[in-house]
């Protein structure tokens, strides 16, 4: 046994079963109200019509849809990705610069493979996506946090962070950022800051990996123009079908600057050859043959109502000392309790009380205790949202009280 | 531009667009007879019945099949993988030890992530799968070739290779081997050698990654027991739906020793979260609801006829100085021309003559010229196979003549 474990790589030994993963396992308990998982709402997809497409893809196109495809992705899927990106706010993406991946986690992984050497730094907003942090660990990268407020990245702090890293002689592989309705914070980076962030990264010669799964889930119906829209040459832009259609098909993509595309594509191919041909064809059909923007508008409205319910319940049941970012889009509400509360500990009490959230420790590379937590409203009915907040209220309010 | 390219990692700069990839691009020309690509034959799948399954998966199970799944793979797909492995010759695989991946390339990649540190050695049979070589490059591993003959790995040479590497103080991450109807050689490692290989690796404390996509494509109907069947504790065994069902769904898996499973699974999750839920459910249905062994038997017979046609055409049209391994299963025929022939150069002449093969240089980490080539018969009609060999005959025969 111990000899067998000598086979493990340093990076494998370094990957921890994350707190969020533990939570997801626990959250399967049907007696709990889970505010943990950020699943999209799929019940309102046009499943009957889509099932006809799914059938045709096998009956009429099976020898294509079930066969090997090309490494960069089908022409049709890359064009469909450009259609989706146009709705994101990038009207002129070139399919030649798109690489299709089996979900955008694989695109994050490919970015590490293509741009990062072991020991490099990846600068991340704090808090950031837990899945990205895990990937950075497996590539033996140091995730260095840079400060955020309720509008996301703080440009001055980013400039300081990059200056400090340069002074320390560190190679920064890239800035990883989710500017629109971020996971986990829900924060929306204003346009002016986007330009500042781009200029700062340009000044420091640092590449930006812009991850935008939630950009179209804008409650006011107006996605904010991505950084890549105006600063294409220095941005690798990641998109996905997961939140606007289906995460189960595992289709994401990267829009890569021309000078870097070939290596990005070969790096991707070395990891998985190509994304499922069938999934690409089903996703292409969803974009080309269905009212996909109508579906996005519909679920966005649903998410907005759920976010409003959640905010209302928090205001009613939780101590007003709990601060939170009022969601303007996306799937998540980020709450900050008074300093001194350890939400990782609090999670166990929450589970005893019958509801589960993800503690903030999951979303930061910074060690120590954290008084933050994430609530996901995307997949939870209004009734359950209220019930979850109600169940957590004594746990939250007592934790707050103990800090006084 | 040059500044942008500074963003590339060392490994990305090291990944070459492979000769085989160039060939695949060229091979798309419909005027060429392509003996390059190892696609499975899908026309005889029960596409009409499968299309009903595909439809039901959306219409009746869409909120599950299109949703996020668990990182290790669905219970049902892991059980189906065990059913397939039982037919491979591993009757007692435990679904708990199976990790589903988006194709087995991703499983090879995960093995590197979980078991290899940068600078480690991976020992490979020579020749070996080009896709694995590319993956090893991206993980900054040294692929060290160990000798083979027409029955695959030569145990004595493996022992010498491992002894030498130990003397040199190198860490060997694992032996990567395709013992049954290997890509590209088609060689079948006899059972006695399998035990020897296992014993040698055990002696040296070296893990085995056994890749077995072709094991069931045995022309005599009797797959040879995998190394993992009798030496489970020291073998990570890779299986796939690609050759027995569909490569387009991108479903592969690893059967991992219990002591290593957790890290393997977390490494996989960090790369792609999970394989397509829909693809897993479609593949599960193929195994559970269809006569999948009947399909495998049918296509195996087809591949056997094609291999026979190819062998017959070579014997008729090519100089007898061309040696080759008579395929007993799988998709490929491996030919060796007299020393001094450079098949990479010859490829261009072959294309002018109207047919394309993959030169041996693609399949080896050993630099220099190679007189070997791979012909794929799996996807080519008997007529085209004969025509391809006939077109290549003057090119091959002149190259042989020049060595005299």
UniProtKB/TrEMBL annotation, chains A, B:
This is DNA-binding transcriptional MocR family regulator. Its cofactor is pyridoxal 5'-phosphate. The keyword Lipid biosynthesis does not apply. Transmembrane segments: none annotated. Gene3D superfamilies: Aspartate Aminotransferase, domain 1, Type I PLP-dependent aspartate aminotransferase-like (Major domain). Keywords: Aminotransferase, DNA-binding, Pyridoxal phosphate, Transferase. Residues 32-392 form the Aminotransferase class I/classII large domain. One of its GO terms (biological process) is alpha-amino acid metabolic process. It comes from Micrococcus cohnii. One of its GO terms (molecular function) is DNA binding. InterPro entries: Aminotransferase_I/II_large, Class-I_PLP-dep_aminotransf, PyrdxlP-dep_Trfase, PyrdxlP-dep_Trfase_major, PyrdxlP-dep_Trfase_small.
């Amino acid at each position: 046994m111990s000899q067998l474990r000598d086979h493990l790589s340093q990076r494998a030994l370094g990957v921890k079963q994350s707190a969020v993963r533990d939570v997801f396992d626990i959250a399967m308990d049907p007696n709990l109200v889970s505010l943990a998982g950020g699943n999209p709402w799929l019940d309102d997809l046009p499943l009957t019509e889509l099932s006809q497409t799914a059938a045709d893809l096998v009956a009429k196109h099976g020898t294509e849809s079930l066969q090997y495809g090309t490494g960069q992705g089908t022409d049709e899927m890359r064009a469909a990705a450009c259609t989706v990106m146009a709705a994101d706010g990038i009207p002129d993406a070139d399919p030649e610069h798109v690489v299709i991946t089996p979900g955008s986690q694989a695109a994050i992984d490919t970015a590490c493979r293509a741009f990062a050497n072991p020991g490099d730094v990846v600068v991340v907003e704090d808090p950031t996506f837990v899945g990205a942090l895990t990937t950075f660990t497996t590539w033996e990268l140091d995730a260095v946090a840079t400060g955020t407020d309720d509008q996301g990245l703080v440009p001055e702090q980013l400039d300081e962070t990059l200056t400090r890293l340069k002074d320390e002689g560190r190679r920064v592989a890239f800035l990883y950022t989710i500017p629109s309705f971020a996971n986990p914070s829900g924060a929306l980076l204003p346009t002016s800051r986007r330009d500042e962030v781009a200029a700062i990264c340009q000044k420091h010669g640092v590449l930006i990996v812009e991850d935008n799964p939630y950009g179209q889930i804008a409650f006011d119906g107006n996605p904010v123009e991505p950084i890549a829209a105006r600063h294409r040459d220095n941005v690798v832009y990641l998109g996905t079908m997961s939140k606007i259609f289906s995460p189960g098909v595992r289709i994401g993509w990267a829009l890569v600057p021309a000078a870097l595309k070939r290596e990005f594509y070969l790096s991707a191919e070395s990891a998985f050859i190509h994304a499922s041909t069938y999934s690409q064809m089903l996703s292409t059909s969803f974009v080309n043959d269905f009212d996909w923007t109508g579906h996005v508008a519909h679920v966005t409205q649903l998410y907005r109502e759920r976010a409003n319910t959640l905010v209302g319940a928090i205001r009613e049941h939780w101590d007003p000392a709990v601060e939170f970012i009022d969601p303007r889009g996306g799937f998540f509400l980020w709450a900050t309790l008074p300093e001194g509360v350890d939400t990782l500990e609090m999670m166990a009490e929450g589970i005893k009380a019958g509801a589960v959230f993800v503690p903030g420790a999951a979303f930061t590379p910074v060690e120590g205790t954290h008084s933050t937590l994430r609530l996901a409203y995307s997949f939870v009915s209004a009734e359950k949202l209220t019930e979850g907040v109600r169940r957590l209220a004594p746990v939250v309010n007592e934790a707050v009280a103990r800090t006084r």
